Amino acid sequence: MRKKKILLIFSLSISTLCFGQGFSLRQCIDFATSNNENKKMAGYDLAVAQKKVDEQLGTMLPQIDGSGSYTDNLKLSKTVLPGDLLGKPGQNITFSMGTQYNASVGLQLTQKIFDPTFSVALKAAKVNKQYYQQSLQKMLEQTAYNVSSAYYQCLINAKQCETLKATLTSSKKLLSTNELQYKNGMVKKIDVDKIRVSLNSTSSQLDQSELNYKQSLNTLKYQMGMPVEKQIVLTDSTATDIDINEANLVINDKLNVDDLIDYQLQKTNMDVQELQKRQTIRSYLPTLNFSANYNYNAMGSEFNFMGKTWYNTYSIGLTLKVPIFDGFQKKSKIAQSKFTILKAQENIRLTEQSIKVDVSNYEIQYKDAIDNIHNEKDNLDLAQSVYNTTQLQYKQGVSSALDLVQAESSLRESQNNYFNKLFSLFIARLDLEKSKGTLMNYINNFK
Predict the structure, then answer these.
(1) 257-291 tens-digit pLDDT
(2) 3-state secondary structure 340-402
(3) Which residue stretches of 86-188 are H helix?
(4) CA–CA separation, 270 vs 90, rounded Å?
(5) What are the two backbone dihedrals, phi and then psi, of residue 290, each rounded to the nearest 5 degrees?
(6) At the topology level of CATH, where does 22-60+116-285+327-444 sit?
(7) pLDDT tens, 75-116?
(8) Residues with Cβ within 8 Å of residue 56, at least 6 apart in sequence
(9) One-character DSSP codes across 401-415
C-alpha cells in the first residue's frame, strides 16, 4: 500500500512537470477570486463607494480657499461733485476715482456649524458602500459557481475519455485477434469489418470527447481569469463524488431568505431610497455656517507692487440660510421618493417569492437528478455486464459479431447517458445550494 502511494505521488509530480501546474477545485476557486476580471471591477466599485464616504465626511471639515486678483483699470471711472464742497460754488467738478492698478490676495475659511442633511447623507454613503460589498459577494458567489461548473465539466469529459480509451483498447485487441483468425479462415470478413466499424466509431467518439475536454478546460481557465495558453492539470478527481444519501438532508434544510445575497441587495436598495427621502425632508431646515476672511490689497498708478504698501483686512461672520420657497421642488422630490420606496418594497416581496419558487424547483430538479443517476448507473452496469458476456460468448463462438457490435454500441450509449446525468446531478446540487444562499458554505467544504 505504501509503495502504491509513493508511486502515485511520483506519477502526479511527473505529470505536473510535463503538463502543467496541478489545480484542485478549491485552488481553482481561490485563483479565480484573486484574478477574475469581474472581481477586480467589483473591487473598484467598492473602492469608489469608500471614497464617497470619505467625501461626505470631508464636507464637515473646514473648507479653506485661497484667492488672488489683479485689475488694470484701463480707463478710470469718473464721478461728479458739487463745486460748493471745494470752494467753487455753481460749478460741477469731475474727478477720476481709484487707481489704474489694483491687486489683492487672501484666504477664506468656511466651517459648517449646523447642516441637518449631513448625518443622513453620511449614512446613505455608508449604506451605498454596503450595497457594493454585497454586490462583490454576489460576484464571488457567481464566480465560484461558474468555476465549479466548469471544473465538473472537465472532470466528466476526462472520465468519458478514460472510459472510451479502455473500450477502444479492448476493441483493438479484439480486431487484431479477428484479423488473425480471418487469415486462418476461422471467421468471415464481414465479421472483421463489423468490428472495425465499431472500433472506428469508438475512436471518433473518443476524438470528440478529447476535443470537448480541451474546450471545457479553456472555459475553466476563462472563468478563473487565467491565460488560455497556461498549462494546468486537474488533480481533484474526487470533486465529482456526491453522497447520494445526503439528498434528503440537503432538501429538508430550512430556508432563510435573509441569507440570500439577492434579497440583501433589495433590502439595502430600499434603505438607500429611504435615506434619500429623509435627506430631502431635512433640506427644509435652516443651515448655519461660520466664515473667516483675511486679505491683502495694494493700489497704484504704476505696475509695480513690490514697493507699494499692502493693506490687510480681516473679518469673521455667521451665515444663516433659511429655506422659504423653492417652487415646490423638494415636495416633488419627496413624492418621487415615496413611489420609489413603494416600488422597492414590492421588489422585496417579489424577490422573496421568487426565491421560494426557485428553491422548490431546484429541490425537485435535484431529486429528479438523483433518481436519474440511480437509473443510469443500473443501466450502465447492465450494459457493461451484457457487453462482457457477449464478448466472452463471441470468443467461444456462441454469439455473432453483430451481437458484439450491438452490445458495445449499447455500452457506449449507456456510458454517455450516465456521464450526462452525472453532470446534471452536479449542476442540480450547485443550483440548489445557490438558490438557498448556502453555496459558499458548500464550496468552502471542498478540500
Answers:
(1) 888 899 999 999 999 999 999 999 999 999 999 99
(2) HHHHHHHHHHHHHHHHHHHHHHHHHHHHHHHHHHHHHHHHHHHHHHHHHHHHHHHHCCCCCHH
(3) 118-183
(4) 78
(5) -105, 140
(6) Outer membrane efflux proteins (OEP) (1.20.1600)
(7) 888 887 777 766 677 777 777 777 888 889 999 999 999 999
(8) 118, 121, 122, 125
(9) HHHHHHHHHHHHHHH
Find the range with the poorest average confidence among 151-155, 272-276, 340-344, 399-403.
399-403
- Please, what is the average pLDDT of the chain? 85
Residue 446, all three cell numbers = 471542498
Place of cell 509513493: 6
DSSP secondary structure string for all residues of 297-319: EEEESSS--TTSPPEEEEEEEEE
- Strands 101-114 vs 232-234: parallel, antiparallel or unpaired: unpaired
Q: What percent of the chain has pLDDT over 70?
A: 89
Helices (H), 36-117: 37-58
CB-facing half-sphere around the CA of 389: CA atoms within 13 A: 6
Count how many Cα atoms sit within 13 Å of the Cα of residue 109 in the half-sphere of its side chain.
Answer: 11
Q: What is the DSSP letter of 292?
A: E
Q: What is the pLDDT of residue 5?
A: 39
Instruction: Determine the residue type at 112.
Output: K
The CA-to-CA distance between both ends of the chain, in Å, stands at 23
Q: Which residues pair with 313 in a beta bridge?
A: 295
Question: What does the alpha-carbon distance between residue 294 and residue 313 come to, in Å, rounded to a whole number?
Answer: 6
Query: CA-CA distance, 342 to 349, in Å (whole number)?
Result: 11
* Residue-range domain boundaries for the chain: 22-60+116-285+327-444, 66-73+90-114+288-322
pLDDT of the residue at 3: 42
8-state DSSP, 254: P
Is a pLDDT exceeding 50 seen at residue 2?
no
* Interacting residues of 385 by C-beta distance below 8 A, sequence separation 6+: none
C-alpha cell at 218: 479553456
Cell numbers describing residue 190: 464481414
In residues, how long is the chain? 447
In order of 259, 279, 328, 383, the CA distances from 392 in angstroms are 57, 84, 93, 14
Cβ atoms within 10 Å, residue 179: 15
CA distance linking residue 38 with residue 52, whole number of Å: 21
Cell of 29: 476557486
At residue 274, the 3 state secondary structure works out as helix
Q: Identity (one letter) of the amino acid at 161?
A: C
